[in-house]
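User: I'm preparing a small set of examples for a lab meeting where we compare how different chains pack in three dimensions. I only have the primary sequence for this one, and I'd like the structure in token form so I can line it up with the others. Please keep the answer compact; I'll paste it straight into my notes.
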Amino acid sequence: MRAESASSIPGPGRPVRGSSTGRPVMALLDLIGRRWALRVLWELHSAAHPVTFRDLRARCDNMSSSLLTRRLRELTETRLVERADAGYTLTESGNRLLGHLRPISAWADGWSAELDVEHPGED
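Assistant: Understood. Below is the structure token output for the 123-residue chain.
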């Protein structure tokens, strides 16, 4: 598996999926749309304290350690996550992002109800 270069990490001002100019919103959506990225952010947001790599991996259904390492590197380089002494935590910017995503999550729940789709895990 090849390591991704820093330039392959979505960021404003660089071409990303859906935007040749790297509009900031498109760069963000490309970043958080990567496999497991949003789940990592949600798990860190819901934690009361920094989360160790091992605990974060368990919270993410034991995703592969190489993929978790890659996502943490990307989210750290984009300043959404930081490594603390006791583990990983969201930065102030990461917490603000998750605060903005709460209304989108609520909207998605309503949309799901309109479509009569059962929510996973809510049997």
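A couple of notes for your slides: The chain has a mean pLDDT of 90. DSSP finds five helices and two strands in the chain.

User: Perfect, thanks.
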